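To whoever is covering the structure queue this week,

Two jobs came back overnight. Logging them here so there's a record in the thread.

Job A:
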Amino acid sequence: MMNIDIMTLFPEAVDAMMGVSILGRAQQRGYIAIRSHQIRAYTTNKQMQVDDYPYGGGRGAVMQADPLYRCWEHVVSTYGPGRTIFLSPCGRTFTQSVARELKENYDHLILVCGHYEGIDQRFIDACVDEEISMGDFVLTGGEIPAMAVADAVCRMVPGVLPDPECFEEESHWNGLLEYPQYSRPAVWHDRAVPEVLLSGDHAKVAAWRKKESYKRTMLRRPDLFAQFDESQLTTKAQRRILAEARAELAAQQAPQEAEPSPGAAQAELS
């Protein structure tokens, strides 16, 4: 069972999102437990103040170490020690491989949501095991990143989704982007579903999906495809699918490259 405790100033926002749909049902069935903790409840002043001016001056406020520590101490003493993660722009970037690492190595995560100008470094030094970032941008608080981490980790816990294929065939699981998906009707606004998906031939469908996955990754994320290990393609059929993907993508891009730009056409007329 995966346990996730989220330390936050807005537990109602976390509970509203984490308690519905797939994760909500998984909690009801006992596969996961996601708990939110109001940091203000661990203050020692009447105003329930959790922040103060930063030493050294500057704009904004900093979350104080003591309320954070008291909240963290309650979580640890009540639910046991866990991997404590501070959601921060200064952390390592969160990816699918990081989500898999957390799921495989830990059964209890404590996610700390910051606000304002950040949190007192002394709490980080004393209690935080690592910092994780959603990317090279800044949000107003850590709740959205914390929920993203919880969602990405929990959906891989056995029982949360009907079958491992539900996440093993998705984008980033094997270093590739997912193939295009289609549903009924077969024709929508004069756009038809690819015929191979209507053929009933499972082998052909699987080959088409793999080929489209290659093409999509090469086109949209060449940086990701550059890391793809082709040595894992051990059969002629697997290598043929990749070769066909490269050829089809090159053929699709050739007409676009051959067309002159509007600016070039104007220059020829002038």
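Job B:
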Amino acid sequence: MSLLRNVDLNLLEALAVLLEERHVTRAADRYHLSQSAMSRVLQRLRETFDDELLVRTPSGYEPTRRGREIQSELAVILPRLEMLLRGETFDPAKATGQLRIHCTDYATSVLGPGLLPRLVREAPGITFGVAPLSDQSFTDVEQGRADLAIAGVTAPPSLHWQTLFEEEFVCLLARDHPVTADRLSIEDFIAHPHVVITVLADGQTMVERRLDEHGLRRRTGLRVPYFSAAAGALPGTELIAALPRRSALAYADHPDYRMAEAPDELPPFPYGMAWHPRVDDDPAHRWLRQTVRETTALATRQQTDR
């Protein structure tokens, strides 16, 4: 414990921000310090840990091996320290801090109208950040840069996962599309070009994964980053958009669109949330997850009643 007595614990939070941002000026802005003050903090940290922690490379700052190890440890230690100081009670009306959620625009359109206003109403002192889901999202949750990921892609084993609801694919087409069947055959599905939502680097991987199981490939006519952009591209084309049903329902009564059932080769898939085990018992995170569960259940019931 002699080493601990000589360390300013406030430096650990600053170090977590520096390792996350990998940029002194951005870390300074986020930590509400001047750039020069944050540079002095970094120098103190280097002396404390007897390591450079961050080194300059042609592409910017990168953590050293020791820096990466410390970053992984801080992702566990800091939430536990926060919990220790705060105690087990959590009152969202009085709480402060930040909670960060990664999800797609589909999730914000389906859950956002119920979830986001409720979060802000019940916890006005907390800043909620919503970022697009990406290939990095699960890593960000693992390393403490995000608190929750809501996705249709099952999380890796290092994270906890809970299914919120089961979703199914439907096909959204232009009203005058040459395919007129109420359910698309797999032959029609792969015969026409698709608008692919590139949520992850490999595209709309749930569709590709299901097609791979049957040795099939669809033809990409357009790639877009958002579900809403996929729908906007359809009128006047032979493009097909394979979308989650809840997303496509927004266009069900629009005169420019027609909705058809997806081929049997595209079965339903789970949509859920992922979080790190270290925040299992954190009262703020428990409240966040419970709010997501309740909001999702309400949205699902409302959808069923329509």
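Note for Job B: The chain has three domains: 2-86, 97-165+270-305, 169-267.

Please reply-all if you pick these up so we don't duplicate work.
Q.
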